[in-house]
Amino acid sequence: MIESVTEEKTRKILLAKKQEVSDLLNNSADDSAPVELDQTQQGRLSRMDALQQQAMAAETQRRRQREVYLLDAALKRLDEGEYGYCVNCGEAIEPQRLALDPATPFCISHAV
Fold first, then answer.
1. What percent of the chain stands above pLDDT 90?
2. Considering its fold, how many domains does the chain have in total?
3. What is the pLDDT of residue 34?
4. Domain containing 76: what range?
5. Which residues are registered as beta bridge partners of 92?
6. C-beta pairs of 26-30 under 8 Å, 24+ apart in sequence
7. pLDDT bucket at 93, cuts 50 / 70 / 90
């Protein structure tokens, strides 16, 4: 288990990151709204561009939702005293790896 000072700092980092990603999710929800297909308002290429932008926004939303999920899982591991250990093998995750991605559940050997 990590030290309590480090645990508090880690919790603050995870919660701040979660808030940041959640804010981005909420602020960009309209970007993936359905595209109007009225040819009288826009041409075919403009619609294709709008559809592509909609698909990219939807993928961005999906990635942000996954990041929130990973942050929640990291907070749960922190509460359970298992933060900082690979969920696959149980070995300690390198501090440099956690510094880059505090929500990572895997050591470098088991990273996908």
1. 64
2. 1
3. 59
4. 4-110
5. 85
6. 28/57, 28/60, 28/61, 29/61
7. very high
